[in-house]
Write a structure and sequence with these properties.
46% helix, alpha/beta, Oxidized Rhodanese, domain 1, 15% strand, 6 helices
Length: 124
C-alpha cells in the first residue's frame, strides 16, 4: 500500500510541474490582448518574417523573425521579468516561440490566440 501511495505522489507531482509550466504561457483572446497591449509600454513581439511584418503589424511591435538563426539571441536584450506579448500570423509560430522563451527564463508570456489574422478580424 505504501508503494502505491508513493507512486501516486510521484505521478501527481509530475503532472503538477507540467501544469505550472503551461500556466506561464497564457493564450489571450483578441479583446484581452488589445486591452493589455494597446497604448501601453510592453514588450510586444511579432515573430513573423520581415516580409510579413512589412505587410502590416500591430502598432509598436518589434519584429524578431522566428526563422532567423539569431532568434533567441535577439531576445537577450529584453527584460525576462517584464511581461512578453507574442504574435504571429495564426498562433503557431508564436506558441512555439513562447515555449523556447520560457526555457530561456522569461516569466510571463502572453500569446495572441489566432494570431494577427484573428486580431484584424472585425469584431462583432
Amino acid at each position: 500500500m505504501h508503494k502505491i501511495l508513493i507512486f501516486l505522489f510521484v505521478i501527481t507531482s509530475a503532472f503538477s510541474v507540467n501544469a505550472q509550466e503551461k500556466d506561464s504561457i497564457v493564450i489571450l483572446n483578441v479583446t484581452d490582448y488589445k486591452t493589455q497591449t494597446e497604448n501601453k509600454d510592453v514588450q510586444l513581439i511579432d515573430v513573423r518574417t520581415p516580409e510579413e511584418f512589412k505587410d502590416g503589424h500591430i502598432q509598436d511591435a518589434i519584429n524578431i523573425d522566428y526563422y532567423s538563426e539569431d532568434f533567441l539571441k535577439e531576445f537577450e536584450t529584453l527584460d525576462k521579468n517584464k511581461p512578453l506579448y507574442l504574435y504571429c500570423r495564426s498562433g503557431n509560430r508564436s506558441y512555439k516561440a513562447a515555449v523556447k522563451l520560457k526555457k530561456m527564463g522569461f516569466k510571463d508570456i502572453y500569446d495572441l490566440e489566432g494570431g494577427i489574422l484573428n486580431y484584424n478580424k472585425k469584431q462583432e
